[in-house]
Each structure stands twice: as C-alpha cells, then as structure tokens.
Amino acid sequence: MNETTELDLHRILFIFRQRWKWILSGFIIGLALMFVTSSFLIPKKYTSSVSLYVNNSQQKATSQDTVNQDDLNASQQLVNTYIVILEDDRVMQSIADKLSKPVSVGQMKKAVHMESANKTEVLSISAETTNPELSAEICNTIADVAPDVLKRVVKAGSVEVIGKATPASSPSSPNVAKQSAIGALIGLMIMIIVSLLAEVLDTTIKGEEDVKKRLNIPVLGEIPHLENQTRAGGKTDEAKK
C-alpha cells in the first residue's frame, strides 16, 4: 500500500516537472487577468464614515454627569433602535432629497451601512459609492438629519455627532493585490487539474511499465530504437564498420 502511494506521488511529481510550463502559464495568466480586471474594469469605490454618540438622556452629557452601567446598556439598546429607524425607506428618501446628486432609495440602502461600533453606544455610519465626495456627503447628511428624526420618532435619548466625514483619498475596493493573488491561485489550480486529467486520459503506451500495468502481461522482449538506419538491407552504419 505504501509502495503504491509512493509510486503515485512520484508520478504526480513527474507530471508537474513534465508540464511545468502549463502550470506556470496558468499562474501568470490568472494573475494578469485579475490584475487588469481589478485595476481597469471593476469600478473603484470610496468609503467615508461618521460616528454618532447615543445618549440615553435627552440632555447633553457634561463632564460633571455620572454615567452608570444601566445608562450604557440603555444607550446600546437605543443604537439598534436608531439603526432600524434610519434605515426606513421614508427616512432614506428624505436624506436622498437633500443630496446634491440624485440618488434613489435603493442606491442609498445599498451604499449605507450602520452598526454599533464594537457593541458600544457609538453608532457608526459608513457610505460606499464610486464618488468619494458623494460618500462623504451621504454620511454628513445622515448625521445632520438623524438627531431631529430620532427625537421626533423615539422621543427618548439623544445623539451627538462625533467629527465629520471627509472624502476618501484612495479607493476602498477593489483590493487589487488580493484579487490578483486569487486569480493567480485559480489559474494555478486549473492548470494543475488540466495536467493531471491530460495524464489520466492519455492511453498511449510509452514503455515497459505501461505494458505491465495496463495489459497485465509479462514483457518478453523489447525492440531497441536504432539510429542512423540505412534503407538498404536494414544495416546500420556501425555494422558496416
């Protein structure tokens, strides 16, 4: 059993050595295709973000106020409630109406992502579009609209804007290096599979071992390959000498 496995492993390594050009070409082609696709064909997207601090009280917190664990837990619960409200179609439409460029509700919901930052009372809002200025504008518009909307609907708690969203200087996606590596790996695997299949489907008998293995009969003799054979009499140049 071990001998068969070892022979199979040697055979696979032999196939890799024999068809290394195929495998290398698959690696290079996959790398090049994904690099070109990621760099020039896939639209670049830019992400901006802004954070809102959720306070359980409607009064703004001061340095003299003490915040207990119950207040923090209540604020964390409010974050989830605020996310549901802000993701409502009517709220999204009111935000889209304030933007400098026309954006549909569907595009808004696809571009905007809201979550609790590390499960804290901080509401993190990010927007990803193909326009860095638009991404920042969406975040800042949500931050401007959110306090009044949440106060009107929930009538509990308050939010304070932390900072201001700015246009991203570099795209957040696609990740050219990552996509190129994936393409190279896919190309490599495809050519390895093709090489193994080509060997498995090849029924050509190449030597004595193939005869024993495929026909299961003993080899009685082997006709050598004679070079420099003459047409007349079947004699070789060596025989004439």
TrEMBL record:
Transmembrane among keywords: yes
Entry GO CC: plasma membrane
Protein's cellular compartments: Cell membrane
Topological category with respect to the lipid bilayer: Multi-pass membrane protein
Spans traversing the lipid bilayer: 20-42, 180-198
Keyword terms, alphabetized: Cell membrane, Membrane, Transmembrane, Transmembrane helix
Main location (coarse class): membrane
This protein's record includes keyword Transmembrane: yes
Residues annotated as domain Polysaccharide chain length determinant N-terminal: 6-99
UniProt GO MF annotations: protein tyrosine kinase activity
Protein family: Belongs to the CpsC/CapA family.
Protein name, UniProt field: Polysaccharide chain length determinant N-terminal domain-containing protein
Organism: Caproicibacterium lactatifermentans
